[in-house]
């Protein structure tokens, strides 16, 4: 099953590079150009110059040159001994202070069809091409994939907690109020125990599908071009591993905003919805999330259809049997996902937004922010929006285990991992 191993992570030498808080950045795909330039102006050694390169005629080659320069200057150094890294994020969600803690290790790459490492969402080819070009130029992973594992007795988490009792090697709080902590585990006995824990486990990708598929492509590229052989470091990818039942695991919903539809008419939409849903007119958005959360706790499929000026309609699915009739080719876990219900019954059948349209975001925009789902309609940028409940972690597991994938933007794991605390230099054994 899953094979994990320690590695000599590449980290910042803060004596030369500066404060770790000025060297890290959020995931590259949620950073604006203004933010990117801001990070660089604060500290020229910020990881964004490697993770999201935009300098020079060939940004990927420039990233390679910057990487070499930083190594030569001693700004980036590799660990003396192989290590597994304990990473914790402390954050606020739903009004509560929480924390999530797992380990960062090298994980042996496996094709999805082997059933050892399982995806849960579809990906876009453009993002994979960008990440592949960066790996070809730098031979590094600068950010981690995020994966979940099942451990009913939580034996691994007990080891992780024991290894993170002391003061962390690195700690800082970012601008979003998220505190990041990193411990370095080099004890060979502890490492051997952690590696053995995963021998009979599957891994479920939570975040980073693009990067995982890119890692497979890069491994194949290296083999095909005589740059590596089976068992070499490029057969492994840096992954953050978290207990699927960790109390700090948070998944936010991703809401849908609809725009630019010809002949959009609220009443026609409602008429179509009444065939499948109990429809209740509501006023005022202050209680929308709590109303939906209550139905979520009752196990019902419910959505908020927002039409502007504080007016919305509560849509509650009458009967799940309709999904069995519409999508008999899908497994029960896939058929019963909230996003599948919304996409199949409303976006496709009533709005005429097909899967290709959704993938290309022609008439659809996604947001994790409830305020954006409301304000976007109020300011006229969007015709309406659909507010969703979050996908359950058990649903992610069951869909992946069935060998299927959810629609894009079905999940938003929060918080995102910071980039820059530890990196994987694939050329270092």
Overall description:
This protein has helices at residues 14-17, 33-42, 48-51, 59-73, 125-138, 155-163, 188-197, 209-224, 266-273, 288-297, 321-326, 332-335, 338-348, 355-360, 370-378, 393-401; strands at residues 4-5, 10-12, 76-78, 84-93, 96-108, 117-118, 140-141, 145-149, 170-173, 179-185, 203-207, 236-243, 250-252, 255-258, 277-283, 302-308, 311-317, 364-367, 384-387, 412-414, 424-425. The chain folds into 2 domains: 4-250 and 414-425, no CATH class; 254-389, Conserved hypothetical protein from pyrococcus furiosus pfu- 392566-001, domain 2 (2-Layer Sandwich), CATH 3.30.1760. Strands 1, 4, 5, 6, 8, 9, 10, 11 and 12 form a 9-stranded mixed beta sheet that branches. A 6-stranded antiparallel beta sheet has the order 15-17-16-19-14-18, with helices on both faces. Strand 4 (84-93) and strand 5 (96-108) form a beta hairpin. The protein starts with a strand and ends with a strand. By secondary structure, the chain is an alpha+beta fold.
């Amino acid at each position: 099953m899953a094979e994990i191993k320690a590695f000599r992570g590449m980290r910042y030498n803060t004596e030369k590079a500066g404060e770790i808080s000025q060297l890290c950045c959020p995931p590259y795909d949620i950073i604006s150009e203004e933010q990117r330039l801001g990070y660089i102006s604060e500290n020229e050694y910020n990881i964004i110059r490697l993770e999201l390169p935009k300098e020079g005629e060939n940004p990927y080659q420039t990233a390679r040159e910057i990487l070499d320069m930083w190594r030569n200057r001693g700004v980036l150094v590799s660990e003396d001994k192989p290590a597994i890294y304990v990473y914790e994020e402390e954050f606020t969600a739903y009004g509560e202070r929480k924390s999530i803690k797992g380990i960062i290790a090298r994980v042996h790459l496996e094709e999805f069809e082997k059933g050892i490492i399982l995806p849960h969402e579809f990906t876009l080819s453009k993002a994979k091409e960008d990440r592949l070009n960066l790996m070809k130029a730098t031979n590094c992973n600068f950010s981690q994939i995020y994966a979940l594992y099942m451990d009913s007795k939580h034996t691994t988490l007990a080891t992780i907690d024991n290894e993170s009792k002391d003061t962390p090697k690195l700690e800082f709080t970012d601008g979003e109020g998220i505190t990041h902590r990193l411990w370095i585990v080099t004890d060979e006995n502890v490492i051997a125990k952690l590696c053995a824990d995963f021998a009979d486990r599957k891994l479920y990708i939570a975040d980073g599908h693009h990067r995982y598929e890119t890692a497979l492509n890069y491994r194949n590229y290296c083999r095909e071009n005589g740059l590596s052989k089976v068992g070499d470091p490029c057969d492994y990818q840096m992954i953050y591993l978290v207990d699927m039942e960790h109390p700090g695991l948070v998944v936010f919903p991703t809401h849908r905003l609809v725009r630019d539809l010809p002949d959009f008419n609220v009443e026609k939409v409602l008429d179509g919805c009444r065939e499948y849903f109990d429809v209740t007119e509501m006023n005022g958005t202050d209680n929308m999330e709590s109303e939906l959360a209550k139905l979520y706790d009752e196990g019902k499929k419910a959505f908020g259809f927002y039409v502007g000026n504080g007016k919305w309609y509560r849509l509650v699915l009458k009967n799940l049997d309709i999904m069995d009739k519409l999508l008999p080719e899908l497994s029960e876990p896939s058929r019963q996902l909230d996003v599948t219900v919304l996409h199949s019954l409303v976006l496709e059948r009533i709005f005429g937004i097909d899967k290709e349209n959704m993938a290309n975001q022609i008439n659809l925009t996604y947001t994790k922010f409830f305020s954006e789902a409301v304000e976007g309609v109020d300011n006229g940028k969007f015709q309406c929006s659909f507010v969703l409940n979050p996908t359950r972690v058990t649903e992610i597991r069951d869909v992946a285990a069935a060998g299927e994938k959810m629609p894009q933007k079905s999940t938003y794991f929060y918080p995102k991992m910071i980039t820059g605390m530890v990196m994987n230099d694939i050329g270092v054994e």
